[in-house]
Amino acid sequence: AVAAALAEHGPFDGLLGFSQGAALAAMVCALRARGDPRFPVSFAVLVAAFASRAPAHGHFYREPIALPTLHVVGDTDAVIAAPLSRELAQCFVEPVVLTHPGGHFIPAAPAQKKAYLEFLERFCPGQGQ
């Protein structure tokens, strides 16, 4: 379903996932990093993400995921505890981790906006990538 949505509504440069959507986006990143042509994305922003604990999903995390990612972690997130998000970030090659003092939401204060822009600028045309 994700591949069909990307094909129908794309192309997309990257993914943004929140909570369960971020868990799914992380699995899509793993497939993309392995060369799956159904998911032609260059990066992902994963907010309040976590690794799926389903045994059938274990293969997504066995190899380091070589796709640029920004992981947004709420220090006081009571839904997806910060250690779960940090654990997922460690599955990626050179993840960028942005922490904020809040909970289970997408932070939009000036400091976070600056971090989002700095991460996304890496993927703008004419920026070397």
TrEMBL record:
Residues 2-114 form the Serine hydrolase domain. One of its GO terms (biological process) is response to retinoic acid. Belongs to the LovG family. It comes from the Eukaryota. It comes from Catharus fuscescens (Veery). It catalyses: a carboxylic ester + H2O = an alcohol + a carboxylate + H(+). This is Esterase OVCA2. Exhibits ester hydrolase activity with a strong preference for long-chain alkyl ester substrates and high selectivity against a variety of short, branched, and substituted esters. Is able to hydrolyze ester bonds within a wide range of p-nitrophenyl derivatives (C2-C14) in vitro, with a strong preference toward substrates of >8 carbons. One of its GO terms (cellular component) is cytoplasm. InterPro entries: AB_hydrolase_fold, FSH-like_dom, LovG. Its EC number is 3.1.1.1. Keywords: Hydrolase. GO terms for molecular function: carboxylesterase activity. The gene is Ovca2.
